[in-house]
Amino acid sequence: MKKNKFLRVLLVLLTLAFLLFAGTWAVGRLSDEGFSLDTARGLLNMEPREVAELRRQEVPQKDEGHQEYYFKLLDEEEQRGYREMLNGIRERKEEFYLSISDDEKVDRAYHALLKDHPELYWVHNREQVYKTTFSRGDYCLFSPGYTYTQEEMAEIDSALEQAYQEVLSMLPENADDYEKARVVYTYLIDSVEYEISQDDQSIAGAFWKHSAVCAGYAGGAQYLLERLGVICIYVEGSVKDSTEGHAWNIVQLDGQYYYLDATNGDQPEFLEGDAVTMVEHKTTIYDYLCPFPDEYELNYTPSDEFDLPEMNAVDKNFYVLNQGCFSSYNWQEIYDYCCMRLNNGAAVVRFKFSTQEAFDAAYNEWIVNGSIQSLAQYYMQLYGLSQVEYHYGILEDLKTMYFMF
């Protein structure tokens, strides 16, 4: 029995020695043939050195100058992957290791990163993540893909700074957060054209080419407001009765959250007839700056990938701030309000209702039955005119009316 036990021990020792020699030989052969030591480690079920170092690093909870709303919603593993992606993208590495590999975690970390950092305009804004995984290790090689050359990036960075300086010049001294949000909202509407192009998905399109789609508008608002110290969240979602996605923002003003949608604010074509072409009728559509949450949410649904702040404030709505919001309908009240605005030199009079019943009653009397003509007569008397051409605009979903003379 003792002899057999000795043979078994000897056999185990010889097997271990062979495996150690074979592993050393494999590393040597792979290195001689141009393979990396990390690849050899992978074949031997060993993590690459870079991954081991990543796991030892502390994960910063803040990034200077950025609010990172979505980062805070990630778990510890996802936050680590987020920071690793951020570092690699900032250094424009073609590929780099992540210390996570689960598809869902990588996707959430990447999507959160893109939403938090609009200034990373040079990385492809795409849903599909390109990565190489390893069957025996919880890590991966991440390949973000980049868009612009160094020369183009220099031009874009200059355009971003110019946009920021232009907004600063438009702000009054000691502007509060609402005024900052209002100026950024109007700046984007006035300086960006809604247009599909190669650069339309990022702030590069908004500020460099001055054309973008909703992603460029929303990223632009976030970029500018973040630099101005206003909490601004990038939101993606869907629009009722549309197969296309949409992007907008949530801003925090005086501790309350509000929607901000510069894309939909840039739509003068809703005005009836040729009114939009008249210089005196040029007006900013403020309906999508702090709209009533319940009205906005009837048509816009955010993605369910991340939770969003609760929305219920209305105090910063344009019509509430300017005494142009009515909870019930009274013909004389609307007429007096419109006359007051005309007396103050307005060529465009606008007001809204907080209930569907009041809006329907006003629409039926002023538009369907032509009560707007009584206001046109007042306008003619005010300016000594024998005739006047008038137009109207309706934003039915937001219960808003515009009268133009």
From TrEMBL:
Q: Which GO terms describe its cellular component?
A: cytoplasm
Any Pfam family from its record, for instance, is Transglut_core
Which residues belong to the signal peptide in this entry?
none
Q: Which SUPFAM superfamilies match?
A: Cysteine proteinases
Which Gene3D superfamilies is this protein grouped with? 3.10.620.30
- Enumerate the spans annotated as Transglutaminase-like domain: 175-262
Name assigned to this protein: Transglutaminase-like superfamily
| Organism the protein comes from | Candidatus Blautia faecavium
